[in-house]
Amino acid sequence: MSSSNDELERSGRQLEARIKKAFGRSLAIREVDSGSCNACEVEVNALTNPIFDIERFGLHIVASPRHADALLVTGPVARNMEHALMQTYLATPDHKIVIATGACACSGGIFKDCYATTNGLDKLLPVDVYIPGCPPRPQAIIQGLMVALDKMKEKAGHSTTSSKRLLDNDNGASGVAHDVF
Amino acid sequence: MNERLMGEIIASMEEELANGIKKTGIKGNHVWMTVEQSVFPKIAGHIHNSWGATLVSMHAVDNRFISSDYKLCIILALKGEDDFVTLVTSVDSKDTVFPSVTPEIFSADWYEREINDMFGLQAKGHPDLKPLVLYDDWPEGTYPLRKDFAADSRVLRIPRPYNYRNVEGEGVFVIPVGPVHAGVIEPGHFRFSVAGEPIIDLELRLGYVHKGIEKISERMPYSKGVLLAERISGDNSFAHSLAYCQAVEALCNAKVPERSRFVRCIFSELERIYNHLGDVGGIALDTAFSIGAQHAYILRERVMDINDLLTGSRFLRGVNCLGGVWKGIDERGRSKLIERLVMVKLDFQEFYDEVIGTPSVMDRLETTGVLSYEAAKDLNIVGPGARASGIDRDVRRDHPYAAYRDLSFKVPILTQGDVNARFQVKSEEIFESISIIEQALSNMPEGEPRIDIPTPEPGRTAMSLVESPRGELLHWIVSGEGKPFRHKIRDASFHNWRAMEVAVLGNIVPDFPLVNKSFSLSYSGNDL
User: Fold this and answer.
1) Range of B180's domain?
2) Which residue on chain B is closest to A116 by alpha carbon?
């Protein structure tokens, strides 16, 4: 275990340095399951257990998209989740990082070309980073976040109005609430 | 199943019902009865109620291109025996209505809504046949599991109304939650109606992660179907792939090597241990007992780590294959596993003592989220949730598969039906699972871990029941040309979600996560 612990510590510190550089504070992540099998959620949850403990590197998984810098999306985007995913995306402040996590979010995975799914997240939203794996290991997610942060600077340089335009078209449909559970 | 038992079942029916039976057959421990549509619900109800049978599944098959009708099946497991009764009836391809079974067997409710969604067959007499999965903007007349519906169709979005249960009264408030939750969990929508603090009604709306898995399976060759089965419910990957493999092996009457049967037991129990550890940790976390929770999460990580070491997958994926397992457990793995289990056992005991020795935690667990025996029976609850409400049922013991017949273990049963009872059942099961693995490791015979099996001939039917960490799950397959013609998957959660609607009544909203965690329900397995 000890060698992999050293590895984790090393990549964690690298991640921490990047977060500091890009934000000067912690990075807040909102996770959205758009139809995964739950394995990706298990791995994202594992990041917060005492073994991986990513909070010590300045990474918080937050309860609301309004508090998030990055959206970490899992699943092939099930048709029934499209609307809720869009609303979560719009609720996240600009300039957000969108991370497609797992084979399904990257391409639709084993569920692609089906009446009830979309072939991956990038068919619906601009994706910054893809983290492959079924599911990606916690270490892979940390690695993916580093790539995302490297892109953050160039992203901040190009202001976008796309999500404002999307918001104007949103006629306040119901059905999505973010709550304490 | 023998002729005598079948005779007894038929003799116990009223004449009108017995006359409705057109054809019977026995295959292994299965009785097949083809019955008239008009007496289908009554016969099912009779076997369910008078014989104490449990509903295993109810599903339809689009047989229009073979026998120009739809087939409707109900599978019932007889009480105390390793025997099943399957009732089959025919539904006309033009007049797509059949008499509802729900008035006879209450737990058929969601099955009939699902059949209505997926096949467009309407259960006449069903109390509330609203869509289960295809709601909001699926156009009327979209029936994905019909054979003339292409799997990769793009379906238009045409809004249609969805009627939630309406709870009204002075001071009644509705709290809508989800589908996107605050925690890192799967999506689902809950509507609590509260009067002051207590919940007076809870309506669930699931189906958000519906991916069309049953339809996708119909285009997957069997060998690839194993991979799909592993992705039905991520943390129950092994149980689902095991059920799929066993069903396909049954289709071609293949006998898997002894060694693989033991290996399958070992990994099934490892999966149970890491899932239960997550659940008991979650229960501790939701009572704000963070120290205890982290203790359990460390143990869970240790078990997932040993999974990784033994198989290369933290989720035990890529282990099961048709005809056995890809990889056995070698001497090195064996000693590592034993070492890790000793550690987990000692540490878990410490965690357990820590929790039950903390009055502020126990105060939250006891008498919270009570599911009575009667409710659990009517809803056909399965798994640890059922065993905590006094239902003495465990597939590993009642319908043994893999090597469970050769292993001895206790099935913990409690009767209180509260969060504490579910916590206790899961805790005891962790110790039992460790003992099962130790037995399996010492009794495991040498030999090849797998054999080649032939491709099943088309037109055969087989099923497999597996006790997943969440409870009994079913894979039922009708074989087609090199791939399933119809693949019915029923996760434990499809039965168990209903328990939530009952168990939370009268509890305060902050106890909902606690009750939820104690049942440990899968969204993906439920929505398919």
Assistant:
1) 172-205
2) B211
